[in-house]
Amino acid sequence: GQLAINTRPWSKVYLGARLLGTTPIGNAEVPSGDVNLRLVDRDGETHRVHVHVDPGEHASAFFDLSQPAP
Q: 68 pLDDT exceeds 80?
């Protein structure tokens, strides 16, 4: 599938050990199903998120990383 992803503030997006790029990312090739991503923000803090991408779908996701963690 395809995934468009954006974060606030910008972050580096990893799928496993593979760097997909720095947000905003308009079109990243990802496997279908539940995709676990690691986001590393500008302060070096790691955030783990997941998105679901159906086969052949162009999914999009937005994550606000500026909110303090609970």
A: no
* pTM (2 d.p.): 0.89
- Beta bridge partners of residue 45, listed in sequence order: none
Which positions ≥6 away from 44 have C-beta within 8 Å?
Answer: none
Between the CA of residue 63 and those of 16, 48, 55, 56, what are the distances in Å? Answer: 18, 10, 22, 23
Characterize the bridge pairing of strands 11-15 and 58-64.
unpaired
Cα separation of 22 and 61, whole Å?
Answer: 14
Q: How confident is the model at residue 60 (pLDDT cuts 50, 70, 90)?
A: very high
